[in-house]
């Protein structure tokens, strides 16, 4: 664990958090264009991830106080050496499971190194239904790698749902395949009562469905 802090970050008058979320990336997935309409493998997954990272970072046009970087939500395609999801569904995978794990680790560390040049980074490990165990192992590697870096914090708690508070905002993270989405406000209030009480704005950010959707809960 190298001790490689940067000099003190320049503070910002207005406290702004930037969340960089690239969900459901499925590193290790294998697709053949003739069959599925497009190709996908470990190399393509790496290229696409960095393209998304470049695009999202290009949108930062204001001073950032902190960066929230959730990792997971099926970051890896398979969960084990048998090439299946956590529940045992057989998948098409690209190469050895060790190769996919190592590449996934390299991509995340490279991303964190880029982000921490901008602002302190809070990493949130979010398990998915494809990579429930494997993403925890990655989180433990990151926790060790950055244990001596003050400005990178890793949250790898063994919980399916995690919460993040930034001033009067609370964000909940879960993959979204287990809970009824109508229960999410109650779950946040029950599982994170201190964050719930101190926040004015509350959101859940979930993956799994591979499409954009928004649900708003209004209290009367």
- The end-to-end distance, rounded to whole angstroms, is 50 Å
Task: Specify the overall morphology.
Answer: globular
Average pLDDT level: 91
Count every beta strand, where a strand is a DSSP E run of 2 or more residues: 7
Q: Radius of gyration over alpha carbons? A: 18 Å
Query: DSSP strand (E) fraction?
Result: 15-25%
Structural class: alpha/beta
List the helices and strands and how they pair.
Blueprint: E1 17-19, H1 33-36, H2 42-58, E2 66-72, H3 97-115, E3 121-126, H4 134-145, E4 152-155, E5 162-166, E6 169-174, H5 184-191, H6 193-198, E7 201-206
Parallel strand pairs: 1-2, 2-3, 3-4, 6-7
Antiparallel strand pairs: 5-6
Helix pairs in contact: 2-3, 3-4
What would you note in describing this structure?
This protein has 220 residues and is of the alpha/beta class. The chain is 30% helix and 17% strand. The chain is built from six helices and seven strands; from the N terminus they run E-H-H-E-H-E-H-E-E-E-H-H-E. It has a four-stranded parallel beta sheet. A three-stranded mixed beta sheet has the order 5-6-7. A hairpin with a 2-residue loop joins strand 5 and strand 6. Helix 2 runs parallel beside helix 3 (97-115) and helix 3 crosses helix 4. The termini are far apart.
List keywords for this structure.
globular, 220 residues, single chain, alpha/beta, 6 helices, 7 strands, 4-stranded parallel beta sheet, 3-stranded mixed beta sheet
Short description:
The chain is an alpha/beta fold and 220 residues long. It is 30% helix and 17% strand.
């Amino acid at each position: 664990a190298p001790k490689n802090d940067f000099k003190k970050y320049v503070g910002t008058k207005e406290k702004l958090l930037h969340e960089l979320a690239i969900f459901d990336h499925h590193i290790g997935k294998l697709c053949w264009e003739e069959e599925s309409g497009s190709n996908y493998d470990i190399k393509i997954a790496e290229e696409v991830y960095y393209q998304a990272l470049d695009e999202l970072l290009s949108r930062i046009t204001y001073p950032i106080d902190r960066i929230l970087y959730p990792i997971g939500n099926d970051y890896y395609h398979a969960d084990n050496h048998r090439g299946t999801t956590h529940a045992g569904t057989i998948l098409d995978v690209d190469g050895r499971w060790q190769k996919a794990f190592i590449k996934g680790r390299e991509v995340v560390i490279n991303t964190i190194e880029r982000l921490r040049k901008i602002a302190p980074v809070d990493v949130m490990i979010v398990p998915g239904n494809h990579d429930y165990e494997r993403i925890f192992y990655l989180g433990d590697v990151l926790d060790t790698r950055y244990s001596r870096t003050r400005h990178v914090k890793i949250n790898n708690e063994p919980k399916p749902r995690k919460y993040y508070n930034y001033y009067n905002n609370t964000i909940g993270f879960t993959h979204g395949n287990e809970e009824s989405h109508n229960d999410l406000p109650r779950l946040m209030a029950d599982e994170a009562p201190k964050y719930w009480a101190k926040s004015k704005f509350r959101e859940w950010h979930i993956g799994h469905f591979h499409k954009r959707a928004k649900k708003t809960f209004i209290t009367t």
